[in-house]
Structure formats: C-alpha cells, structure tokens
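Hmm, what's this shape?
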Amino acid sequence: MEIKPITTYTGKVVPLFHDNIDTDQIIPKVHLKRISKSGFGPFAFDEWRYLDDGSDNPDFNPNKPEYKDASILITGDNFGCGSSREHAAWAIKDYGFDIIIAGSYSDIFYMNCTKNAMLPIVLDEEARIHLAHAESITVDLPNQTVTSPDKTFIFDIDETWKNKLVKGLDDVAVTLQYEDEINSYERAKTF
C-alpha cells in the first residue's frame, strides 16, 4: 500500500455519532477472509450500510447524497473498541476515510490507524458537533489544527506518529532510514 503523507488535508465530512462503535460493527467477522489490506471497503459498516435486500440503507449517513465522497469521519467516543483486528482500520481506509475525528479511541484501533496511514484525531463533543455542520474542513497536521469555515480547533498527537504521517512513513520505511548504519554494523560484526 502506498503511503501518502498527510500535511494539510481538506475533505468532506460525514457524521456518524454513535459511541462504542466496535470493530465488529466496522467490519463484521464474516468478511475477514482476505489476507491483503485491500478489498474490505465494500464491507465496512455492512450491517448498518445495507438493507436486507443488499441495497443501500438510506438512513445510514455515509449513504446520504449530501455525504457522498466524504473522506473525514466524525464520530463518538470509544471508536474502534472490541477486538484488535487490524481489518477494521483497513476497511475504514479502503472505504475512503483518511481522517477520523472521535471523542476517544480504543488504544489498539488508534495504533492500527496510524500504522495504516490514517490520522485519528481526538476532539471534544462540542468541537465535533461544530465540525459536523461544515461541508468540508481542513486538517493541518504539522500545526495540529482542524479548521471549519469559521472556527479552528487544536488537537494533540504523539510526535512519533505525527512525524510518520507527515513524512508518509510506515514502520519498514522508518527502519530503512537506518539502512547504511545497519549494513555497516553487520559488516563489522564477526560471527
């Protein structure tokens, strides 16, 4: 998967204000038959997204015309709780979301997002409600701000994750930054 750096990002928002959305609601276990990171998007939020006949559920916000092509999900507290399946982050990313703004996250889901080139942002409920009313918002990761047409909010992020996302690096790419030193050490090491 190509990792695109996240610096300044403007996108359309979609609210999905539920607390405790767990990984089984994000990607039901029946769809966990793939071993690649792609192809999970059509199954994201499967039970909420589709009606029994397989057609789009018109009451599910991301299906509504005004939210089509949204790439920023605004949601409730404790997003991504439940199991540790990385497939949930893959499904969200494959669905088309690059940024999630929630009140809080499960620790494992948060880490899975950062490792899969998604930016999870924590903001309080007042800020999330305000941002959900904007058609689009701008996230400035280097300055750690989220801006609607009339207001700016500041968010916190660990410097390590910020650096990786801004530079578009995954764990392998970070290691490869030290390739010369690793090779030098291996050459000097005698067995």
The helical segments are 23-26, 46-49, 87-95, 107-115, 125-132, 159-167, 171-176, 179-188. The two ends are 36 Å apart (CA to CA). The mean pLDDT is 91. The CA atoms of residues 1 and 14 lie 25 Å apart.
